[in-house]
Amino acid sequence: MPLTSSSSISCRTIGVVHSRFKETVGVPVQAAGVPHEVGRLEVFAEFQAGLKDIEGFDYLILLTHLHLCPHEKLEVVPFLDTQPHGIFATRAPARPNRIGISVVRLLSVEGRVLHFSGNDMVDQTPVLDIKPYVPAFDVRQTTRIGWFEGRLDAMPEAVSDHRMS
Hints:
Blueprint lengths: L14 E4 L19 E6 L15 E7 L9 E2 L8 E2 L12 E12 L2 E5 L8 E7 L2 H4 L27
Antiparallel strand pairs: 1-2, 1-8, 2-7, 3-6, 3-8, 4-5, 6-7
C-alpha cells in the first residue's frame, strides 16, 4: 500500500526527560549552545536492557516528541532569525511530527537513569529513541548552512519564546 500524507506511524515512548525547564518559554534552542546545562533521562523499566554498554559513549543522540508544541506550521520565524523560513529549513519545534533531536553529553549512568549535559528539553519530554553519537557517522564538514550563516554566535544566549505557541 503506498504511503500518503494521511498515513500514520505509531511510536512508543521509551523514557522521559527530567529538566529544570517547566515550560517551553526560556528553554535553550540548541543543546550545543548550553554544554553545561544538565538533565536526566529516565528510561522506562521495560527498556532498561537496551542500555547495555551505553556508558562507553561520550555523546548520545536523543530523539524526542515535542509534546508541548500545540500545532504545526509550515513557515516559521525561527528563534535565531527574524525572517520566516520553511519549517524543514529550520530546527523549530512546530513541525508536522514534532520530532526533536538533541545531541547530549553522557555524564553517568545510574541503573536506568542517564545523567547528561547539553539539555535543551523541557521537563517531561517524551523520548522516542536513543542512538550513540559516532563522529565517523555523524560529523560532516560543510560550508553551506543556509540562513544559519552568521547567526550561530547568538546560539548560547538564544532561548525559546512564544513564537511556536
